[in-house]
Design a protein that fits this description.
The chain is of the alpha+beta class and 108 residues long. It is rod-shaped and about 80 Å long. α1 crosses α2 (62-75). It has helices at residues 46-56, 62-75, 85-97; strands at residues 7-11, 18-22, 33-39, 77-84, 102-106. Helix content is 35%, strand content 28%.
Length: 108
């Protein structure tokens, strides 16, 4: 008789019947997510900021990029995207390379 790798047989004390017990399953924690923030920019034009956001973060629509730019313009900082660490670092560094001020912050 073959056993599956996730179950073990434990003989019962009454009647000799076998009871199947499942091994505990592992629970995967979701990876931590990070906010990519765009800071207000008094140097570059609004059009440049919107165009750059769309180039760097393809998931952003024209309207999303405009909203991020206006949020940064009006409040000092705008939320670009929330994602895993690697893409967040890529987006942040690429925005910086194109002359925009960007930072990362863990999502809480």
């Amino acid at each position: 008789m073959t056993q599956s790798p996730t179950a073990t047989q434990t003989p019962s004390r009454e009647g000799g019947a076998a009871v199947m017990e499942k091994a505990p399953q592992r629970v995967r924690k979701p990876s931590p997510r990070y906010k990519v923030l765009l800071h207000n920019d008094p140097v570059n034009s609004m059009e440049y900021v919107v165009t750059t956001l769309r180039q760097v973060v393809p998931a952003l629509s024209e309207q999303d990029a405009i909203a991020v730019m206006l949020e940064a313009h009006n409040t000092g900082v705008g939320l670009v995207i929330v994602c895993d660490l690697e893409p967040a670092e890529f987006y942040c560094e690429t925005l910086k390379a194109k002359g925009l001020t960007s930072t990362l912050e863990p999502e809480t």
